[in-house]
Amino acid sequence: MKRIGKILLGTTIGAILLTGTALAAPKLNLFINGAGYVSDYLGLKVENGSVLVPIDKIAAEFKGNATYDAKTGDVRVTLSDAALLAHQLQRFEDAFRADEPKQALDTWIEGVTERNGSLQYAVFSPELRQKTKAEFDANFWVTGGSSPHMGKIEKLVTKQVNETTLTYSFNYHLIASNYDGLGSAVVTVQKLTTDRGDGWYVTNIKLKNPGDLGIMIGVEQLK
Questions:
Q1: CB 112: neighbour CB atoms within 10 A?
Q2: Which residues partner with 160 through β-bridges?
Q3: Which of 9, 105, 176, 211 could form a disulfide with 14 if both were Cys (CB 3.0 to 4.6 A apart)?
Q4: What is the pLDDT, as a whole number, of residue 13?
């Protein structure tokens, strides 16, 4: 085995095929997830509008490695645990992609009752994800609070806004050791085509009292 040379970065670990005139600047500046990398060390260069980088160096930056077998022509990239976990997480989210609108609502409700931010986020639309990810991260993907928590759902009303959008209005019980109150919610679900596939996603959440369940992320005031 020997370290491989410069090849076009087209693997999962380095999905960084960049094109366009924006890269015509004399010096290349590489940023991955907002973190800067020294382009001289990585040996970046532009050829015919594409960025080339030694795949072994980019793999090393992600705590992995790449090798080339001259006899078989095989290029093998070993991913770090973090990269493999990212793939596992994607498969987890794919499993919760909703084929029916009510399925998206039910998954979100389950995420709330279980205080599981990851489950809620799994059915969020791309726009809602962008707005909420930093807050989920800051709370270590735990929502809600010890008391009260969301209990039984009742008086569910479905409204068809158009062919691809529905709203669900409902009340929910606020359960505590010595208290049973009532909250109200309106959740909008929309059919979208995203890079995660076609499905129904939660696009808007409104609660009569956004603070009645503790930490709630992606929620607006119901007027």
A1: 24
A2: 166
A3: 9
A4: 37
Burial class (CB in 10 A: 0-12, 13-18, 19+), 6: middle
DSSP string, 99-167: SSHHHHHHHHHHHHHTTBHHHHHHTB-HHHHHHHHHHHHHTTTB-B-SSSEEEEEEEEEEEEEETTEEE
* CA distance to 82, 115, 124, per residue, from 88 (Å): 10, 21, 18
Token couple for 47: 């050829």
pLDDT tens by residue, 71-85 = 888 888 776 777 677
Which DSSP letter does residue 81 get?
H
Q: How far apart are CA 169 and CA 93, in angstroms?
A: 25
193 forms bridges with which residues in the sheet? 198
Question: What is the domain partition of the chain in residue ranges?
Answer: 6-84, 96-221
The dotted CATH code for 96-221 is: 3.10.450.100
